[in-house]
UniProtKB/TrEMBL annotation, chain A:
Organism: Haloferax marinisediminis
GO annotation, cellular component aspect: membrane
Localization of this protein: Membrane
Coiled-coil segments: none
Name assigned to this protein: NADH-quinone oxidoreductase subunit M
Keyword Membrane among record annotations: yes
One GO-annotated biological process of the protein: electron transport coupled proton transport
Annotated membrane topology: Multi-pass membrane protein
Annotated Pfam families: Proton_antipo_M
UniProt keyword annotations, A-Z: Membrane, Oxidoreductase, Transmembrane, Transmembrane helix
UniProtKB/TrEMBL annotation, chain B:
Name by which UniProt lists this protein: NADH-quinone oxidoreductase subunit NuoN
InterPro entries linked: NADH-Q_OxRdtase_suN/2 (IPR010096), ND/Mrp_TM (IPR001750)
Listed GO CC annotations: membrane
Gene name tied to this protein: nuoN
UniProt keywords, alphabetically: Membrane, Transmembrane, Transmembrane helix
Ranges annotated as spanning the membrane: 12-29, 41-62, 82-106, 118-135, 141-160, 172-199, 211-229, 261-284, 290-311, 318-337, 349-371, 392-409, 429-450, 471-491
Subcellular localization, as worded in the UniProt entry: Membrane
Membrane topology: Multi-pass membrane protein
Any one of the GO BP annotations: ATP synthesis coupled electron transport
Superkingdom, taxonomy of origin: Archaea
Organism: Haloferax marinisediminis
Length: 509, 506
């Protein structure tokens, strides 16, 4: 029941915050959001799952009751976590709390609505990462869009209306494409399943129950479903060339929403890719290894090159997310324990580090009211703590050892080099590794020009150190990044345990 | 032991009796002291009356009245009325809408005259709708249809100083009169062929109809026209945008939710009981396959409604057209019935009924929000709604829920009811109908989200003055919003009941 309690408490917190007067909303939201943090840590402490939730493993905190009986397929309320979802649940609760804390300074209008929506989004995200029935999962998946649409559209920058609608339209259409892909699988399975529970569908697919549908052979149907689902999730990730909504959304969104967008929402895409495409249709995935590796490398290199060309700090961080999520795709398609495990680990690591970077940019913006690299120089003199954390976060992004980013990228590259999905995999891995060089390039470039050198600033604001409640979430994230970098096993062991059953199917062992 | 096994049979019509008595009581209250109408007493009586009727219907339904296992449908007055699960289910829709409308009218009518008459007209119309759902004879269908329609004409024209309201009332009345005539003529043709007006007897008389298939077909077509009027389906939909726009907003809510559901209640019963598809389709000379007729009507209605809604600048008119679109979705319930459908027939009809129930909440709520905006005197276009959320965040949240739910977006009741409807249509083999519905549904997000965007994201184009905080309207709108949200997790009993009672018709 702990998962239901976690989601329910977060929903209630959202309701309470929504009706509170503005001046209490921020503090109340922060206090209330600590409950889900404690809940997720309690889940972690009592975690006793083994194996992969979709492939017959033992699921922790599982609930499985019939919700809706409708024709052939019953809809179940089925939730539970395994080693892949628990780290993301913990990431969601912690990052939401820190994002709420970092909203105190920048958000000054319609505060109760803002914090209510943040908590509403958290509740839906928790649902996405714990739901194990397709229908329930899809409800939460789509429900995440609604608060994000408002967060960008109401509290965003000057082009917020355009960005909000672009975000909404892109991701909503992607969801429809994905939905069609998944439903075609369900029709192909016909009478061999009695519900839309993901474990049941995954196991029926492994047992070879897929038959043709509407004139398509079973393997053609699997390919069609794979492509439709991949396209749907690829928009969310996003991979090149479906990434164009992301910089708009990121740049216009208020800082805390950017943190949630980069930190958690993008992970919905890769999480779903892993759960649906790579777990349910491993053979099809292997047969598409070449194009998938191609888009992965393209995302890494092209995203990094785009970041290199930007003058806006937030845009730099936004494009670098495209790059980092490319590594996740590369790890997934490698189909090795380090590859897929590293990809899952990178989801958490990138959640922490990109959250940290967006918050740091936000803190600088709160003080200077500009994000343009050309407008400032030598900020480290005036705000040394913020600058220090910014530098540390950037090092984490570049993959400095003992930081979470290093561990994640190391796992992914190791896994990708070991990969046997195709002969050319080392070539792709080598090309993707070149991305690290570009990342280091643009981050050092940006830092050198904004933080160091003689102090110069084109603006009328007085530059002082940020208040404690702005710096505290940065420090917490930095600490977590280091902890995860020094001791990756706190998540990696559990991830590996959940990932290995997938690989046995994929024939990697 | 159901409540009715210890009571006389006529007690089964208790919901209709309670509604009629409430209407009379309202007139009595107003007669005692006609000069100073006590608005809160009137609104309270009307609300309690509808809730009591709804409560009785729910009690009967839960106790299994009219179901197979408790002795089947209760038939009254020489089979002219029948109380079964389906009529009780629809009664629940009418009474919940009537209750919300009565509560909301408290504020809307506060500075109008003839308050007592307004509430009693609502009650009498609701009585007519309840009788429509119970009608088991073409004669009672016609009488109860008129009983529901006549108060509605008066309600639409209620703002007698407002040209729009008068014009709407007149238009509604004229088209209503014409379609009543068409309907009556259709009944007479069916009577000529089958020699009966009671629905099961009509079905039995069909076996002799081989020689007169043409006449029967014409009769069925004309009867279908009568329903198309009541449900605002193409081609008898022209009155709907005018009437909904001109009428007082609570009346628009009442008409577009309850009155429409009543039209479907009769349509479902008449076509499944009086003209069973397996018999009428196998008559000589090609038979009368009405499922194709409804399939075409469904596609045209939903597409036309959606595209017209997308081009509107006036929110109330947009909702009126979207309500036409929703009539198209509900028509799938009849369109997807097949000759050898068996269980699937009951499933798709039940899904359609469940959608109408969810629709009763979300659509009523949306129109009542518009009533609230009209009360504030803010204006009617999308532009006038700009920035409304900064002034009234809670009401705007409720409206957002209605809009997204009508569009069929996941976290709300409208999603699951549309899913059930489209899924059941696919199960019956009408995947193309479901596909058209799904595409329409996706398109509808465009115009629904315009309201949301205006309220939350746009800056106010003029200073917004929110004068009063209408308590009754707030209560009704929030009640509808909570209902819309809770119908997602609580959909199982609704769909289960709807499909069970629908299956009893086949």
């Amino acid at each position: 029941m702990i998962i239901e309690a976690l989601i329910a408490v977060t929903f209630l917190a959202a309701l309470v915050t929504f009706v509170l007067p503005d001046r209490y909303a921020g503090k109340a939201a922060f206090a209330l959001s600590l409950v889900p943090v404690l809940g997720s840590l309690l889940m972690w402490q009592q975690y006793d799952a083994s194996g992969n939730a979709l492939l017959g493993g033992n699921i922790a905190f599982e609930t499985d009751v019939v919700w809706l009986q409708l024709g052939q397929y019953d809809l179940h309320w089925m939730v539970g976590v395994d080693g892949i979802s628990l780290p993301l649940v913990v990431l969601t609760t912690i990052l939401t709390t820190l994002a709420i804390l970092s909203s105190w300074t920048p958000i000054s209008e319609r505060e109760s609505q803002f914090y209510g929506l943040m908590l509403l989004m958290e509740a839906n995200l928790l649902g996405v990462f714990t739901a194990l029935d397709f229908f329930v999962w899809f409800v939460f998946w789509e429900a995440v869009l609604v608060p994000m649409y408002f967060l960008i559209g109401v509290w965003g920058g000057p082009r917020r209306k355009y960005a909000a609608i672009k975000f909404f339209v892109y991701t909503n259409i992607a969801s429809l494409v994905m939905f069609i892909g998944f439903i075609s699988l369900v029709f192909g399975l016909g009478d061999s399943i009695s519900s839309l529970r993901l474990p049941e569908i995954a196991q029926a697919l492994q047992a070879g129950q897929l038959s043709g549908f509407a004139g398509l052979s079973a393997s053609a149907l699997a390919s069609v479903a794979f492509i439709a689902m991949f396209l749907g999730f690829a928009v969310k990730v996003p991979v090149v060339p479906f990434h164009t909504w992301l910089p708009d959304a990121h740049v216009e969104a208020p800082t805390p929403a950017s943190v949630m967008l980069a930190g958690v929402l993008l992970k919905m895409g890769t999480y779903a890719l892993l759960r649906f495409n790579f777990t349910m249709l491993p053979e099809t995935a292997r047969s598409f290894a070449l194009p998938i590796a191609l888009v992965a490398v393209a995302s890494v290199i092209y995203g990094a090159l785009l970041a290199l060309a930007q003058q806006d700090l937030k845009r730099i961080v936004a494009y670098s997310s495209v790059s980092s999520m490319g590594y996740v795709i590369l790890g997934l398609i490698a189909y090795t324990t380090y590859g897929v495990g590293g990809a899952t680990f990178q989801m958490v690591a990138h959640g922490l580090i990109s959250g940290l970077m967006f918050m740091a940019v936000g803190v600088i913006y709160n003080t200077t009211h500009t994000r343009m690299v050309t407008d400032m120089s030598g900020m480290a003199d005036k705000m040394p703590v913020t600058a220090g954390i910014f530098v540390a976060g950037a090092f984490g992004y570049m993959g400095l050892p003992l930081m979470a980013g290093f561990a994640a990228e190391f796992f992914i590259f190791k896994g990708a080099f070991e990969s046997t999905v195709m002969a050319a995999m080392p070539l792709f891995t080598g090309a993707a590794m070149f991305g690290i060089v570009i990342v280091a390039g643009y981050l050092l470039f940006a830092m050198q020009r904004t933080l160091f050198g003689p102090f110069e600033f084109d603006g009328d604001y007085e530059i002082t150190e940020a208040p404690f409640h702005d710096v505290a979430p940065l420090a917490v994230l930095l600490l977590l990044t280091i902890v995860l970098g020094v001791q990756p096993d706190i998540f990696f062991t559990m991830i590996q345990e959940a990932v290995n059953p997938i690989l046995e199917l994929g024939g990697a062992f | 032991m159901t409540p009715l096994q210890t009571l006389p049979d006529w007690a089964a019509t208790a919901p209709a009796i309670v509604l009629a008595l409430t209407g009379l009581l309202l007139l009595l209250i107003d007669t005692i002291d006609p000069d100073t109408s006590n608005n809160s007493l009137l609104a309270g009586t009307a609300t309690l009356g509808s809730l009591a009727a709804g409560g009785i219907a729910a009690w009967f339904l839960l106790a299994g009245t009219g179901m197979e296992e408790t002795g089947g449908a209760i038939s009254l007055y020489g089979d002219a009325l029948v109380v079964d699960g389906m009529s009780l289910f629809f009664t629940l829709i009418f009474t919940s809408v009537a209750a919300m409308v009565s509560v909301a009218s408290y504020d809307y009518l506060s500075d109008q005259r003839y308050q007592g008459e307004f509430y009693s007209l609502v009650m009498f119309a609701a009585t007519g709708m309840t009788l429509m759902a119970m009608s088991n004879s073409l004669a009672t269908v016609f009488v109860s249809l008129e009983l529901a329609s006549l108060p509605s004409y008066a309600l639409v024209a209620f703002l007698k100083k407002d040209r729009g309201s008068i014009e709407a009332g007149l238009k509604y009345f004229l088209i209503g009169a014409v379609s009543s005539a068409v309907f009556a003529f259709g009944i007479s043709l069916v009577f000529a062929v089958t020699g009966s007006l009671v629905l099961p007897d009509v079905a039995a008389g069909l076996s002799d109809a081989d020689q007169l298939v043409g006449v029967l077909g014409l009769g069925v077509l004309m009867i279908a026209g009568g329903f198309a009027f009541k449900t605002a389906s193409v081609p008898f939909h022209f009155w709907a945008p005018e009437a909904y726009e001109g009428a007082p907003a609570p009346v628009s809510a009442f008409l577009s939710s309850a009155s429409k559901a009543a039209g479907f209640a009769v349509a479902f019963r008449v076509f499944t009981v009086a003209f069973p598809l397996d018999i009428v389709a196998s008559l000589g000379g090609g038979g009368v396959d009405w499922s194709i007729l409804f399939a075409i009507l469904a596609v045209v209605t939903m597409t036309l409604g959606n595209f017209a809604a997308a081009t509107q600048e006036n929110v109330k008119r947009m909702l009126a057209y979207s309500s036409i679109g929703h009539a198209g979705y509900a028509l799938i319930g009849l369109a997807a019935i097949t000759v050898d459908g068996g269980v699937a027939n009951g499933d798709v009809l039940g899904a359609s009924m469940a959608h109408l129930l969810v629709y009763g909440f979300m659509n009523t709520g949306a129109f009542l929000f518009i009533a609230m905006v009209e009360k504030w005197g803010i204006g009617r276009t999308f532009e006038d709604y700009n920035g409304l959320a900064t002034k009234v965040p809670i009401a705007a949240t409720a409206m957002t829920i209605f809009m997204f739910s009508l569009a069929g977006l996941p976290p709300f009741g409208g999603f699951v009811s549309k899913y059930a409807l489209f899924y059941s249509a696919i199960e019956s083999g009408f995947w193309w109908l479901a596909a058209v519905g799904a595409v329409n549904s996706a398109l509808s997000l465009f115009y629904y989200s315009r309201v949301v965007k205006a309220m939350w994201i746009e800056e106010p184009s003029k200073p917004l003055e929110i004068g009063s905080q209408p308590v009754g309207l707030y209560v009704a709108v929030i009640f509808a919003a909570v209902g819309t949200v809770l119908l997602l997790p609580g959909f199982q009993p609704v769909i289960e009941t709807a499909q069970t009672v629908a299956a009893a018709l086949f």
